[in-house]
Structure formats: C-alpha cells, structure tokens
C-alpha cells in the first residue's frame, strides 16, 4: 500500500503518542507499505511552530530530516498535478493543508492515514 500520512499522524507516530490508532500504527510500521510525508505537512508544522500553536519535544530540524529518513518515510513535493486536482475539489472543508493532502492522494492514488473525520467526505481511501 502507498499511503500519505496526515500531519498529526506523522507527529503522533514519531512521538510514540497513544492517540495513533493501532491500525494506523501497524500500517506505518509494515515494511511492505510505502510511507509518504507531504511537503505541505512539513510546511504546516513549521507555520504552527512559528505561531506558537504547536509544541514539540524535539527540534524542527529533527522533525524535518532525521525523523523522515530514520523511519523510512518518503517526501512528496507539491507538484502541478496536485494543484490541478486541488482546483477540482469540492469545498467540504476549508483547511488548505488538508485540501492539499486530499489532492495529492487523489492525483497519486494514495491512501490517507488520518483520524480527521472530514476526509470521509472525499473519495479517497482512509486508514485509521
């Protein structure tokens, strides 16, 4: 399976947070699965840190580099096809980061690992 992690799923996984569902944790730890982090999630983390809306037990540098490579995650840049898909998305909710993740899933045929119930309104596979 090829799956994109929502920002909170990534942060919960690297922190060992029990909010991550057992199903999501198992999917992330499965070596057969391709685990992907969007550049949009890293952007969201950076913005929330700078606004004081997110506190981490580690440094931003470790979040942006070590935790990605050490856990076998792949980084997904924002590409033209993702933006085209974004322009076609229905306005089920307004969070720009979430909408971009949905667009990346739709454009690239990825499942999304997320606890966010708003994603059920989109035609994508959810893992939670």
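^ Assign residues to that structure.
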């Amino acid at each position: 399976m090829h799956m994109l992690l929502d920002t909170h799923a990534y942060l919960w996984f690297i922190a060992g947070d029990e909010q991550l569902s057992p199903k999501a944790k198992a999917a992330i730890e499965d070596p057969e699965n391709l685990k992907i982090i969007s550049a949009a999630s890293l952007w969201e983390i950076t913005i929330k840190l700078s606004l004081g809306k997110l506190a981490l037990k580690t440094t931003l540098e470790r979040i942006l580099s070590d935790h990605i490579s050490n856990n076998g995650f792949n980084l997904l840049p924002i590409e033209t096809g993702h933006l085209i898909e974004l322009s076609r998305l229905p306005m089920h909710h307004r969070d720009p980061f979430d909408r971009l993740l949905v667009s990346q899933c739709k454009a690239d045929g990825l499942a999304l690992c997320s606890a966010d119930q708003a994603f059920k309104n989109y035609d994508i596979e959810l893992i939670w």
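The radius of gyration is 14 Å.
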